[in-house]
Amino acid sequence: MIMIPILVVLYLLAFFQKTVNALLDINDILPLKDGDNIITAAESNYNQLKQGVRDQFNVLYITMHGIDEDTKLVKCALCYDFEKNYRRVSKLIQQQAPDTPVTFFMVDVIDVPGVVKDMNLTKVPHLVIYPPSNDDDSFSWISSPFYQYPLTAQSTEEDLHYGNYLAKILGIHLEIDEPFKVQEFISYFCICILPFIVVKKLIMPYITNKSKVACMLLSFGILLASISGFKFTQMNGIPFIAKNDKNEIMYFSGGMGWQFGIEVFSVSLMYSIMAASSVFLILMHQYDLFGILKYPLSVLLASFLFYFFAYYISCFEIKSPGYPYMY
């Protein structure tokens, strides 16, 4: 008979502890936030934090830190790289939308191994977003429904995509300034300036009637746009630029009966470049252009034509999988 009251008391204590954990208040964990507006869970407070803040969005980033002793590299490069974006977006939300009901958490599977079992993890990293809930008893990271953001190598380079994804869920407007990418700028600069230099220094000196050539090029451009299938894409409402599920631009559609708007111009540009190179290769010898330099230039131009045509064939294989005449 004595055991019954003891069991009742223990049951009530367990129920009270569960209720206290479930009613985790944001004010109780505010001191745990770091300078980037993120709460990093530890073994000592994980059981409390995993109950979540039920009246707010819970953004949980599960990661793994540490250095591999053999390779001396980080154990999870993707975890390390994406954490920069995670911290940046969290801080931007704190600055631009401080009243947004959202709390950011981060759990390291090495520091808190219990999260692996609780979440049935087989790999890291993971980013999940729990919407607010009115159910006090059942809300937790373990059992509540969530949105999951797909983490790939591209995710580490595009914080704009992650920020836009999170802003849509939170229902806020977030302004993210993309960092200046020096390597990308140099690449585009070289691609744009090289044709200009070639035309200016190598081609323009041999053109006597520049206005006639300009009209010819304009007519040629209009002709290409008219006969290359661009009108087909307009009449059928086909998008000019389409993206796949990884937010990457698809330059070529699969199948021979379908094409994107950008595909029309890409193929037309390929034909134009190969035709111009072939004509220039002929004229260079016919009119003895560039003197003795015409021989090494001919070799370079012929090699360029070969590799460019190989690239064209590889693009055609996207349209017609299994094309037998590849090389």
Task: Give a description of the structure.
The radius of gyration is 30 Å and the shape is elongated. The protein has 327 residues and is of the alpha/beta class. The N and C termini lie far apart (88 Å). The strands form two sheets. It has a five-stranded mixed β-sheet, with helices on one face. The chain has a two-stranded antiparallel sheet with strand order 6-7. About 5% of the residues have low confidence.
Number of domains: 3
Q: Determine the strand fraction and express it as a percent band.
A: 5-15%
Low-pLDDT segments: 7-22
Subunit arrangement of the protein = single chain
pLDDT averaged over residues: 83
Q: Mind telling me the C-alpha Rg? A: 30 Å
Name given to the CATH architecture of the largest domain: 3-Layer(aba) Sandwich
According to DSSP, the number of beta strands is 7
Going by CATH, the homologous superfamily of the largest domain would be Glutaredoxin
What's the CATH topology name of the largest domain? Glutaredoxin
The major β-sheet equals: 5 strands, mixed
How far is the first residue's CA from the last residue's CA? 88 Å
For the record, the CATH class of the largest domain is Alpha Beta
Reading the helices and strands in chain order gives HHEHEHEHEEHHHHEEHH
List the strand order in the largest sheet.
Answer: 1-3-2-4-5
Shape: elongated
Helix content: 40-55%
Please give the count of helices.
11
SSE class: alpha/beta
Keywords: Membrane, Signal, Transmembrane, Transmembrane helix
Signal peptide: 1-22
Main location: membrane
Membrane topology: Multi-pass membrane protein
